[in-house]
Write a structure and sequence with these properties.
The chain is of the alpha/beta class. It is built from seven helices and seven strands; from the N terminus they run βαβααβββαβααβα. Helix content is 40%, strand content 21%.
Length: 207
């Protein structure tokens, strides 16, 4: 096996990044490991819950990219890492951690992973998932209320004050660093097929 293949999947909140990631995992299973940028939000133990609610989580400064890049390099080199685990319900890292084992294909997922030049250099295939803003915000509202214990008011406030402005400032411009732009993410079957072919080529060669 050649060097590990690192695939970066970026795009706005609710764009379909996770759906595309799941398609890769469904096809290649144990040959793939997922590294989620969200788990590398900085620890905010020094802030109260009320203060953490006001933090801008859509800015590059919200992430511990130094740790993220270091651990991605370790995975590429065949070393396991101990990854932090983020708890969205309390806006902070949890006390738990998880061990990530290196696999032949490493999928990195996050809204801002293509914004960081040093991080981009570690990716062999950079994908930006492009989905209409109305669709994305509706998906985010459903997800945050269902999975993260948020209220409609809090989701709306966060979207208007930080998510939308930061998307326009950082996320959307980062598409220029992508090798491939996929409209509608995992629902774009022809594009998904091409990505799966690239992974299969890496794993199995041209046979």
């Amino acid at each position: 096996m050649a060097e590990r293949l690192v695939i970066g999947i970026a795009g706005g909140t609710g764009s379909g990044k996770t759906t595309l990631t799941k398609k890769i995992v469904e096809r290649f299973g144990d040959d793939v490991v997922i590294v989620n940028h969200d788990n590398y939000y900085k620890s905010l133990d020094h802030l109260t819950y009320e203060q953490r609610c006001l933090v801008n989580y859509d800015s590059p400064d919200a992430f511990d990219n130094e740790l993220f890049i270091s651990q991605l390099r370790q995975l590429k080199a065949g070393q396991s890492v101990v990854c932090p685990v983020y708890d969205f319900t309390v806006h902070n890292r949890s006390e738990q951690t998880m061990v990530i084992e290196p696999k032949d294909v490493i999928v990195v997922e996050g809204i801002l992973i293509l914004e960081n030049p040093e991080l981009c250099e570690l990716m062999d295939l950079r994908i930006f998932v492009d989905t209409d803003a109305d669709v994305r915000v509706l998906r985010r509202i459903k997800r945050d209320i269902r999975d993260r214990g948020r209220t409609l008011e809090s989701v709306t406030q966060q979207y208007l004050t930080t998510v939308k402005p930061m998307h326009e400032k950082y996320v959307d411009p980062s598409r220029k660093n992508a090798h491939i732009i996929i409209p509608e993410g995992g629902k774009n079957e022809p594009a998904v097929h091409l990505v799966l072919l690239r992974v299969a080529e890496h794993l199995y060669g041209n046979d």
